[in-house]
Amino acid sequence: MNTKDVLRRFLFDDLAIRGEWVNLTDSWQTAKKNHTYPEAVTEQLGEALAAVTLLSATIKFEGNLILQAQGNGELNSLVAHSSHERDIRGWARYDEKITVEGFDQLLGDGKMLITIKPKQGEPYQGIVPLVGEKIETAIEGYFEQSEQLKTRLWLFADENHAAGLFIQELPNKDATAAAEDWQHIEALANTVTQEELLQLPCEEMLHRLFHEEKLRLFEPETVQFKCQCSNEKLSATLLSLGKAAVEELLIEQEEIIAECEFCSSKYHFDKIDVAQIFSKPTVDSYSTTKH
Predict the structure, then answer these.
(1) Number of domains within the chain
(2) DSSP conformation class of 61
(3) Looking at the predicted structure, is the pLDDT value of residue 280 above 90?
(4) Within the chain, what is the greatest distance between any pair of CA atoms?
(5) Which of 225, 248, 277 lies at the terminal end of a domain, its last residue?
(6) Which residue range is the domain that position 257 belongs to?
(7) How many whole angstroms separate alpha carbon 47 and alpha carbon 158?
(8) Higher pLDDT residue, 263 or 92?
(9) Is pLDDT above 70 for 285?
(10) Lowest-pLDDT range, 20-34, 46-60, 248-262?
């Protein structure tokens, strides 16, 4: 069974607690090769991608879930996307020189936004302050504030893998028993090491942590890197700027070059392309090129 680039859900049959495990390998390598980030920034991006994949499996929706951290530190923005089909992508924006390490030092003071953009209906966004030494602490604070559910995450990333473990309590009428069960499972999960989470297959890791518990493991869900950029979307962006603004840009330069922040693909729009965009009510196909 494939243990790479998969998400696995699990449930404790006798306890009101559920969990998830994710491994990113090829998807992580693809996401990483699109950028030349400093090592400290790359590590944070890997953990964010593991986190957003886990979060995308906590709710039922069709669309995209976006995890974004913004701060006043040397790492200004950290963005990770996952679709309901586990297509992931991400990017980071940072100062020219990185002199610190760690999530809290890199981001500084700021906020974390979790946005759900469904295919149908209005987007939903939750905002919490950036707290703690790692991104999982801010995410746990989000669930405590918005869902009132006890939640824990463990996230790690290195050159080869990004991985995560997630546990969350389920509603339970017996508050005393639920608190005791949670304390027990949290203590067991808290013994997981970086090496185990990055290297061990899901079944082996869960057995090591919870071998005395009755646990139900669900079928794996494939995760892949997949960008959503396209000529059509970039053309729509130019339309939104307005003809006058776009033509002014073309006066300053022979063509407009738009680069996707997620996959680094470049889209070129010259005068002919722009004329076609603004001559049609809908965006069809253009002579734009993607490199």
Answers:
(1) 2
(2) -
(3) no
(4) 70
(5) 225
(6) 231-290
(7) 9
(8) 92
(9) no
(10) 248-262
